[in-house]
Amino acid sequence: MTPKEKAFATLAKTMIDNLKKRGMDGHYFDDCASLVSYLKETLPDDSVIAWGGSMSIGESGVMDMLKAGNYRLIDRAEAKTPEESRELYSRAVLSDYFFMSTNAITIDGELVNIDGSGNRVACLCHGPSHVFLIVGRNKITSTLEDAIRRVHDIASPANTVRLNLNTPCSVTGRCADCQSPDCICCQTVITRHSRQPGRIQVFLVNEELGY
Questions:
Q1: DSSP letter string, 123-161
Q2: What's the CA angle centered on 104, arms 202 and 191, to 5 degrees?
Q3: Is the Cα torsion angle 80, 125, 205, 27 positive or negative in sign?
Q4: Residue 68 to residues 46, 62, 63, Cα–Cα distance (Å)
Q5: Radius of gyration from C-alpha coordinates of the chain
């Protein structure tokens, strides 16, 4: 391990303790391969699984694992009409496992997510039996204010470019607090506690994942 990796491994222990106090479970993994192996052993066959928009799920290898497994997947990309998309969203709310990342997470264990349509944060807040978050070390911030700033200044500009959206941040690379029709900063959700202990599980990976 490099000094940076060793430091994060130590920090992860602190964060796992803080998440526990907030009713959430934390897990640490040295790399994505270890995470994928753990999930293969953890997820029951025939589970109903959905996910929100996330680069981390794909980069970690988790998406490939899900698609190769014996699971019932709800893939919103398969929708061909608005009606089909809405029907898939409604099924995702009742999934056994919902996968996502988080735009940022504080050392104290608060999750910060800013969404456009809101389907991702909706499932985080309520619905699926289990919510699994794949989180790289680049998502960690010291304070809640830093977490919100990280989303606006790092995650959102990159996502608007990825999605070919016409927003000020896609042009300048920085948040303009816009009211653009393409704005993806429409809902801000701070998860500071879970009233269902263990429903939200945070998988801290000692790699940089997503935006």
A1: HHHSSSSEEEEEEEGGGEESSHHHHHHHIIIIIHHHHHH
A2: 65
A3: negative
A4: 12, 10, 9
A5: 17
How many Å separate Cα 166 from the centre of its chain? 24
Query: Tokens 């599980």 belong to which residue?
Result: 201
Beta bridge mates, 72: 48
Question: pLDDT band at 117, cuts 50/70/90?
Answer: confident
Backbone angles phi, psi at 92, to 5 degrees: -60, -35
Q: What percentage of the chain has pLDDT greater than the value 90? A: 92
The average pLDDT across 131-143 equals 98
Residues 6+ apart with CB under 8 A from 66: 49, 51, 73, 99
CA atoms within 13 A of residue 148's CA, in its CB half-sphere? 9
Q: What is the mean pLDDT of the chain?
A: 95
Q: What is the pLDDT of residues 53-79, one digit of tens each?
A: 899 999 999 999 999 999 999 998 888
